[in-house]
Amino acid sequence: MLRLIKYIIFIPIALLYRIVITIRYFLYRNGFKKAVKFKTPIISVGNITVGGTGKTPMVYYLVKELQKKYPKISILSRGYGRKTKGFHLVNDGNKLLSSPRNSGDEPFLLANKLGNCIVAVDENRVRGIKNLEEEFKPDLVILDDGFQQLGIHKTIDIVLLNASKSFSEFKVLPIGNGREPISKLKRADILIYTKTKNFQKPKWSSEINIDCPTFNSKYDAEVWEYKDNNYQKIYDLPKNLFAFCGIADPNSFQQVLDKNCISLSGLKVFKDHEPYSKKNIKQLSKEISNKKTKNVITTEKDIVKLPEFFLKNHHIFTIRINHIFEDKNLFINKINSIIKEKK
């Protein structure tokens, strides 16, 4: 009965949402609004559902692989949850210039890990790319979460689909987690099924009738110890380990822990992008203390948001996620060939 009531309430909202999306596409498709074209090749990494597809590790993966051919890469993100507005530089390619509070957790994480990559945030992506081109003249711009950015002419639209989720996830908000109807995947240049089991596509992949190159990736997880702003890869974890995270797909975090036989004394889940406020830290610290431990494990995205006193008072470990492709060379060669073709 509760489910039926939910559908009765949400169906009109979902229909209204679809109408808004349809009008927006109509305006761009018929020339009432035009996409801005830039000199620099632009690769968008996006999705069609709300979070949890592995965009951040995919952006990291692309930068590491493509820097061999394009030494000067810029990443542009919206900077979700940041306290600043407008164009904000997170890393100028030489040094870190911001904080998670001012840039958002994901851009800060990328800027901190990559070091030699230009990272910026701007809610107005057109303005952001213009600023990057004028100031840095990059060889390539990677647009984080850019699939819905119709106002930008992109060289490649890469869309990630979480293979571990059910097909019902693609129903448009608020009934499902779809940001737009699945038919809009026809705009994609490359589809990637992420979080696959041994590179196997999900059963529902037959429902995705899109004529574009498709690749499969899976997660490879490594455990690192974090201490004094440094990471060190480890192979043995202490006992009595408490886990916590604030990401879009907390189930995947727990699955990675289970897959690596990491036993826990407790688990605490926060909302995606939720700040670690004094209240949250107090509550988290109490739950950890109740388990009589100081050993904690979390995600890289969470570590950058934690206050210094918490980091010093606990023995911190993190799961580092990497995308692994069945045929990496085929994937990277396809990206390079599309860029060359569209130049």
Descriptive account of the structure:
The model has no long low-confidence stretch (mean pLDDT 93). Helix content is 33%, strand content 23%. It has 343 residues and is of the alpha/beta class. The chain has ten helices and 13 strands. Helix 2 runs parallel beside helix 4. It is globular. The longest helix has 28 residues. It starts with a helix and ends with a helix. The chain has two domains: 195 residues, 3-Layer(aba) Sandwich (Rossmann fold); 105 residues, Rossmann fold. Strand 8 and strand 9 form a beta hairpin. Strands 1, 2, 3, 4, 5, 6, 7, 8, 9, 10, 11, 12 and 13 form a 13-stranded mixed sheet that branches.
Gist?
By secondary structure, the chain is α/β, with parallel strands linked by helices.
Please give the structural blueprint.
Elements: H1 2-29, E1 42-47, H2 55-66, E2 73-77, E3 88-92, H3 100-103, H4 105-114, E4 118-121, H5 125-136, E5 140-144, E6 156-162, E7 190-194, E8 214-227, E9 230-233, E10 241-245, H6 250-259, E11 266-269, H7 278-290, E12 295-299, H8 300-303, H9 308-313, E13 315-325, H10 328-342
Features:
single chain; 343 residues; alpha/beta; Rossmann fold; 13-stranded mixed beta sheet; 10 helices; 13 strands; 33% helix; globular
